[in-house]
Amino acid sequence: MNVVLDAGAFFSRFMPEGEAGTTPSVAAEVRDAESRRHLDALRAAGILSLAEPSDASLSQVRNSCARAGDTLSFADVSILALAIDTGARLITDDYGVQNVALRLGIPWSPSRTEGITGPVRWKCRCSGCGRRYPPSSHDEACEVCGSRIVRRKA
Predict the structure, then answer these.
(1) Are residues 104 and 127 in the same domain?
(2) pLDDT tens profile 115-148
(3) Rounded distance, CA 103 to CA 108, Å?
(4) Are residues 56 and 99 part of one domain?
(5) pTM to 2 decimals?
(6) Taking residues 42-56, what's their average pLDDT?
(7) Are residues 128 and 102 in the same domain?
(8) Sign of CA dihedral 103, 107, 112, 116
(9) Is the pLDDT at 81 greater than 80, yes or no?
(10) Do 31 and 7 form a contact (C-beta atoms < 8 A)?
(11) How many domains does the chain have?
């Protein structure tokens, strides 16, 4: 396997050179008709395979996310873990996934964006009163004023 594909690669109709892989949870995210046809065509041509990552790699990615303050979906964690297991390059346009990939030393390339230029550190603040919170607090409600806590680059 040369590359591991995130859902964005199917949305942008990315054509891998050589063998590609993704996880069943990423494949389940591809629901629009055109992107699904692209995924199915790659599988039918024998270019794309679906694989589950190891538990050890999933744990490694989750630990890295917790240390960096990144909150990723299970699908995002799974493709990072699959890239660790296979040693393949990751194709993703998701900045959060790119950030964790950089921290884990996983090589990555975007499929249609420029991508990030270095690791991102996050800060969380209440959108109402400005109170600071730990990076993992985003999308929660402020305990002081009840406004939404938002995450921004530090």
Answers:
(1) no
(2) 666 666 677 888 899 898 877 666 688 888 999 8
(3) 12
(4) yes
(5) 0.77
(6) 97
(7) no
(8) positive
(9) yes
(10) no
(11) 2
Q: Are 10 and 82 in the same domain?
A: yes
CATH of the domain at 11: 3.40.50.1010
Tokens 């949870």, residue? 25
Q: How many angstroms separate the CA atoms of 24 and 70, rounded?
A: 22
Q: Are 131 and 142 in contact (CB under 8 A)?
A: yes
Closest by Cα among 124, 146, 63, 64 to 99: 64
Would you give the distance in Å from CA 71 to the centre of its chain? 9
Sign of the alpha-carbon dihedral angle for 82, 86, 91, 97: positive
**pLDDT top residue among 124 and 25:** 25
Q: Is residue 115 part of a domain?
A: no
Same structural domain, 44 and 74: yes
- Report whether pLDDT(9) > 80: yes
